[in-house]
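Data's thin. Show one?
=====
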Amino acid sequence: MMKKILLLIITLALFLPLLASCGPTDTMSDVSLGDTSLETSTPDEIKSAKDLTIAFVPLDNRPVNDQRPIYQIESAGMKILIPEEHLFATRLDGMSKNPNGTTYGDREALLEWMKENEDKCDIFVVSLDQLLSGGLVSSRALTNEDLTLEYMIVDYLAELSKRKPLYVFDTVMRLASTVNYNGMQMEEYSDFRSYGQKERKTLVGDELTIENIFEGYRYDKNGKKISTPLSEEQLKNYHNSRIRKLKLIDRLLRSSDNIKYCYIGVDDSSPNKSIQTNEISYIMNLIGENGTLFCGTDELGMMAVSKAYADYWNDSAKIKVTYYGGNEDKYADSFDFDTLRVNVEKHINSLGGEVVTKDADIELLVLTRDCSYDASVNLITKWKRNEIKGIKTIVIDASNTEHNFNVLLEDIPLKYTLGYSCWGTAGNAMGISLAMGYTRYMYLENEPNKTETADEAFAKGLVFAFVKDMSYCRSARSSLNKFTPEAIESHLMRDDYKYNAPLVISKLVGEKLISDNDGNTFTIPKIDLTDFTAPFERQYEIRFQVEFE
């Protein structure tokens, strides 16, 4: 035993000097203990979205569905891949058709575009109405029963979702289709909407099947056939379009467990039970935790982008909501089946946000319908106080009325404003504004590589929101009747409207916007509006570009 111990001591004596003389490897030779200059795994530790690329398939070619999402994505420092416009454009009656000979998007070409760009992007955000039906308008009009192409596309999406983060958005078909598409006029629109608004028998449990929903379309809640001036052919096509959409979302939700999130908007609804009620219940039974359904449509693409960006950071925000006008617990407007409060909270929760009463990251100020002049003044007063206190703020005008915003136009409090909208229905306005604001908040809180390019994109999106939503929608839109670029420009820039574009622009130029959380700001330079068009050649929508000098 003593010999073994002596042998061990001799061995250690021989080898310890050798071990002591062995220096570190070449890459470590100049680094001493405690040296913090060494960059070990910096790319993994310092996460950034500056090289993140989103492939975006829009609902259609209206600016709310492509131009605003582009501003939104770029305002977060990300890159966007988007198809050429003619691949997703809708053409109403009298307009030139797309290169593929149709009045709707080119589904096969879009599918190939997605395949070609899979390796060039990090995230997909895709409109199902576009990819499966060629756009929102055509999704209400297609009646084909052979769904071979559509099911093939759905199966591709299911496989894609295993390889790339995939966010999709879809709609429940509106009560009536689109005026000036396939010959429909206002009288027929009214007849379809009246027919769709009739309450059907509510299906529950095992009764709630696609077949029973389809069979119940013609009958009211008492089983009596619904009387309508619509022809048998019109009714057949209307029913087939509805059931076609329901079959497609059914196929997707049953086959695509890996989809990150699914937004479904109820387009042109009603506060009462209607032809949509059983469809909504059916989808709600399928959608699960990775999806949400609420009133709204044209904001869905922006909401999906904001959700994808927040998921990337694995972050959330606490939002305090204050309503002005006193009607937050009533239906937001005649197109909703939820109250304003419920719809706002659905939008927030879907993004991963939390509604709180104190210690908020963001304050959301909402003007309700049927509000008084005093309510709008009180909202603006709070908005200005938030700017003084440095509180990040999002503003939604869901009043759908023209209020005297002269108090606001004296001094628009933009510095800490993250989002603003009064566009379209209440659902549209809340989705647009929340998506803008939530995305920008995530950028300010998380992105280590902030850029002036992102600030500029955010500023352009905010300018577009004020000019389009306030100057155009609340002032100039009702009297626009010519759709040439020159006519649109001269109409929008007239100075005899209450909220005319030159007045609003003059209040925005020189305003400072926060560009980080350290007090730095971006100053809005001189603004030029260019490239005026009306993509659907109707007064409801116009497009223009915001340029900075």
Summary: Residues 267 and 397 are 19 Å apart (CA to CA). Residues 452-476 form the longest helix (25 residues).
